[in-house]
Design brief:
The complex is a heterodimer. By secondary structure, chain A is α+β, with helices and mostly antiparallel strands. In chain A, 35% of the residues lie in helices and 15% in strands. Chain A has a five-stranded mixed sheet with strand order 2-1-5-3-4, covered by helices on one side. In chain A, 52% of the residues are buried. By secondary structure, chain B is an alpha+beta fold. The chains are: A alpha+beta, B alpha+beta.
């Protein structure tokens, strides 16, 4: 057992709320989030290659399976669970639902978070932009065609929200 | 019962999946996410040898690591299960290796700790001493090799047709399926042309993004398994058999699966976690890593030899098929696949003389079984490449050549079964239309050459299997479906809700589909082979109709107008308050005949046929060998779709999976060790690999015996993809790829070889 002396307490913002966590040096971000009951970030390939474990740290998408929990101290962490506020889906989530941009749903949180980041930075992406931006997320059910449709639809929704 | 939805039928609607909201918010339930209080994590110590006799296993260093609860080996397993061998066709696979290891990565011991990192670290301290034995890896060589993977064959007894293999010794061949129709040799002698080609495929990994994962919780008299399984009923039966317990002491629960594709069938780590939990009296969870999955279950590597006799006007008169299935070290469901897919190895053609030998072979590679298509995409790749080569050699248009030989409705398939509800010709014709086959085609120029290809395949459904469903109407009129069909992304919850809703005449969105819990949900053979829409669909329909009829009778008995009274009102009148249930039950077990042992012939080989055709347009870079698929057209006979939107995504999902198997996926080995066992080296398709255009279409068809005319669809999109692409490459640059995957290197080598300037092999 790793000596308890190695445990450390970190403080950070999780989905908009200040929290603290007791962690061990080898714990990664996905494991730590599970202690908060958050299972949307999922370890799959364990190498940062599939995107299932995507989490936003200080506004940047990271691979939670490779990101040591210790590095979260003082950071702002957003998970997929935070995107729907008061029961209302975000435009991106709504677009994924409407276009059926998933099958098994295991990779979906990673895609949804990446699309949020994409549209924050590039509100009107071309298909090439979309393919480039999402190339680090894998969907074994291969709902890629529907995902591209969902991104387009989400971009429209966000535009009409902003102008409307 | 009030009919609020009479004008809008529930089937045929493209409603979003019932669980869509949970999936986009990250709240959907997967076994991978489950944790129980006091739970231990198991990490497996695996064989580093492909074949060896175990001399000793030293677990002392691992057991001494602080935080390690216990280390388990086969000796411990035997205290719980004296004969700890499992498998659906052969009882050949030990829960942990006993006496011998038969492939690299075979589980030898397991370390249990409450911290998975501690268990993982400790597992690396285990030392095993082996006497290394010679190993055999090639499926053809293994049939005559002195290296024997299993000393004695041990058929499981689940399938009666394998019983006569019991006790057979000194052979790696564990099933030899034969089909004999007419006389191929005489026909070859009489043919104007005889063509012969050989094809090869490599082992493929299913790569579900949620890994294979099971969690067991036990008492002295019961065990509950939470497992990411496609077959909860079969898991229960197999665990009960191993423990010599009655089925009702084993409870199996599932959740949504993060993909299955055949990887999560029969049992995988379920027996191991059960034993660990019984030995420790604590819950035990094992989640495989991506690397471990490559050593757990795969899709067969194959050698396929096809020979056809053809008349000068392009009629195929005879076809001989020899197919070797590299089953790896444990049979799993491979022998069943060898037979069930084997009888279609000659393709959807009307051929008078057919000779098929389909061999299941043990080797010292990781076990192989079904992956989305149960062998059909591999067979289709071979026979549709072969067919295309013949058409080209005879200078007949590939479409026209297929038309001349197509297996049409009312004609006998190779087994003798008369084709029915199989829209083979409609799929081919629609494919030609969607490919604009007769329109001028830009063939490219300079470095980039363009080509196009078509292919068509068919699959028989699994036969003689049973589905049972329960439909329960509550006091307020809300209804639930209880069944063991597992939604692994194919949308079964939604489709089954639509079927129940149609029979009950209520909106599908109001129905809840209860996920498998074998204490509650009734028997189903499994979620595989595209069988659920048809088999469970019929069971759910029967159950819903049973519930509906009981409600109508109750309403009539109470003096209520049966057709217009809401369900809730029937209960209120009956019980004086919101109370009670009406339960309907449905059992579906379509009969078919097993192929004759000597001839492979059968009158009624399958409950239904699935037909899939694919067309591909490609651009080949002749300087790099890079192939870009610019257009992929998938046409299918799925009967009448229950949910057209989900059917469409199933078709492209299946096509893309086979696209990966065609373009980039293939396990590589060095002395039995997988050298590309990670997503860094094993390339599954990403969003940038998508063809520029994917078109899916279902032909107008109806499966008379299916629920509301529907049949299975999950695998159909895979059938024609590989040959459509290799046929298109041939069309573009005149070279024939006879090995999958068609990587840029493979294409470039073929181009150089065709130019009499072959590159040296590495």
């Amino acid at each position: 057992m790793v000596p308890t002396a190695a445990q450390q307490t970190i403080r950070f913002t999780l989905n908009g709320k200040p929290v603290e966590a007791r962690i061990l040096p080898h714990h990664n971000l996905v494991e730590m989030l599970q202690d908060f009951g958050l299972f949307g970030a999922r370890e799959s390939c364990g190498q940062g290659l599939c995107g299932c474990c995507t989490v936003l740290v200080n506004g940047n998408a990271v691979s939670g399976c490779l990101y040591l929990a210790a590095f979260i101290d003082g950071a702002d962490v957003v998970t997929v669970e935070h995107l729907a506020s008061a029961g209302t889906l975000s435009p991106v989530q709504e677009a994924f639902l409407e276009t059926g941009a998933f099958q098994c749903g295991f990779c979906t949180p990673g895609f949804v978070l990446m699309v949020h980041q994409l549209l924050d930075r590039n509100p009107e992406p071309t298909e090439e932009d979309i393919r480039h931006y999402l190339s680090g997320n894998l969907c074994r059910c291969a709902s890629y065609r529907e995902i591209i449709q969902a991104v387009r639809s989400a971009a429209e929704k966000r535009k009409s929200c902003a102008t409307g | 019962m009030k009919t609020t939805t009479k004008e809008t039928s529930q089937v045929g609607r493209s409603i979003p999946r019932l669980e869509a909201r949970e999936k986009v918010t990250g709240r959907a339930e997967y076994i991978h996410n489950m944790r129980l209080p006091g739970m231990l994590y198991g990490k497996i110590f695996r064989s580093t040898l492909a074949h060896g006799r175990i001399r000793s296993i030293d677990v002392s260093a691992a057991a001494a690591v602080a935080g390690v609860h216990r280390v388990i080996t086969a000796e411990d397993v035997k205290t719980v299960i004296p004969d700890p061998y499992y498998g659906p066709v052969f009882h050949d696979q030990p829960i942990l290796a006993m006496d011998k290891v038969r492939h690299v990565g075979e589980p030898v011991a397991v370390v249990l700790a409450s911290d998975p990192h501690v268990a993982e670290q400790a597992a690396q301290l285990i030392a095993a001493d082996y006497e290394e034995l010679p190993a055999v890896f090639d499926e053809v060589a293994a049939t005559g090799s002195p290296v024997i993977v299993h000393e004695v064959l041990r058929p499981a007894g689940m399938f009666p047709d394998f019983k006569d293999l019991a006790g057979r010794k000194n052979t790696n061949l564990h099933l030899d399926f034969k089909l004999r129709r007419g006389d191929v040799e005489t026909a070859f002698a009489a043919a104007d042309h005889v063509f012969e080609h050989t094809f090869h495929t490599r082992q493929i990994m299913h790569t579900p993004l949620e890994p294979i994962v099971s969690l067991a919780e036990s008492t002295d008299s019961s065990v509950t398994l939470y497992t990411a399984s496609q077959m909860p009923s079969v898991v229960r039966m197999e665990i009960a058999r191993l423990l010599a317990w009655p089925e009702n002491r084993v409870r199996v629960r599932t959740a949504f699966l993060g993909g299955g594709f055949g990887a999560k069938t029969y049992i995988k780590v379920e027996a191991l976690v059960t034993v660990c939990s019984l030995l420790t009296h604590l819950p035990v969870k094992i989640s495989l890593t991506m690397e471990e999955q490559f050593y757990t279950i795969t899709k067969h590597a194959n050698t396929l030899r096809l020979k056809s006799g053809v008349t000068k006007d392009g009629r195929i008169t005879s076809r001989l098929c020899e197919v070797w299935w590299n089953g790896g070290a444990y049979a799993d469901i491979g022998p069943r696949l060898t037979q069930k897919s084997g009888f279609t190895a000659a393709g959807p053609y009307d051929i008078e003389n057919v000779h098929i030998d389909s061999y299941a072979v043990y080797t010292n590679l990781p076990p192989a079984a079904g992956l989305r298509g149960f062998g059909i995409p591999t067979l289709t790749w071979a026979y549709e490449s072969h067919t295309d080569l013949i058409a080209r050699a005879l200078n007949i248009d590939p479409l026209e050549f297929r038309r001349r030989n197509l297996l049409r409705e009312g004609r006998p398939q190779a087994t003798g079964t008369i084709m029915k509800d199989a829209a083979i010709d409609a799929v081919l014709e629609r494919l030609a239309e969607r490919m604009d086959w007769h329109a001028p085609f830009d063939r490219g120029s300079g470095v980039i050459r363009r080509g196009r290809g078509i292919a068509i395949g068919f699959k028989a459904s699994i036969s003689n299997t049973t589905s049972v469903a329960i439909v329960n109407a509550c006091g307020d009129g809300s209804c639930s479906v209880y069944c063991n069909t597992v939604d692994m992304g194919q949308g079964s919850d939604t489709a089954l809700a639509q079927i129940a809703a149609e029979a009950l005449n209520i909106p599908a969105e109001t129905i809840k589909v209860i996920h498998a819990d074998t204490d509650v949900t009734p028997y189903d053979m499994g979620t595989l082979g595209s069988r659920s829409t048809f088999h469970m669909g019929q069971a759910v329909k029967l159950a819903a109709e049973d519930a509906r009829d009981k409600l109508l009778a109750l309403a009539a008995e109470l003096g209520l107008p049966p057709e217009t009274t809401p369900i809730a009102q029937i209960f209120r009148k009956k019980f004086g308050m919101q109370a009670g249930n009406v339960v309907g039950i449905g059992t579906f077990n379509p009969k078919s005949t097993q192929p004759d042992h000597a001839t492979g012939l059968a009158e009624n080989i399958t409950p239904f046929w699935m037909i899939g055709g694919t067309g591909a347009e490609v651009e080949v870079d002749t300087e790099t060998g890079h192939v870009r698929v610019t257009r992929l057209v998938n046409i299918a006979d799925v009967g009448t779709p229950i949910n057209p939107g989900i059917v469409d995504s199933q078709l492209s999902g299946a096509a893309m999976m086979q696209f990966g198997c065609t373009m980039s996926e293939g396990m590589e080995f060095d002395a039995g060790q997988v050298t590309n066992a990670s997503l860094a080296d094993y390339k599954i398709p990403g969003i940038r690999d998508m063809p520029d255009q994917i078109i899916n279409e279902v032909v107008e068809a109806r499966q008379d015996t299916g629920p509301y005319g529907a049949k299975g669809v999950g695998e159909t999109g895979t059938f024609g993809v590989s040959p459509a692409i290799t046929n298109a490459i041939h069309d573009a640059v005149g070279v024939r790829l006879t090995r999958l995957p068609v990587t840029p290197e493979a294409v470039y080598r073929a181009l150089r070889a065709a130019n009499n300037d072959a590159l040296e092999e590495e």
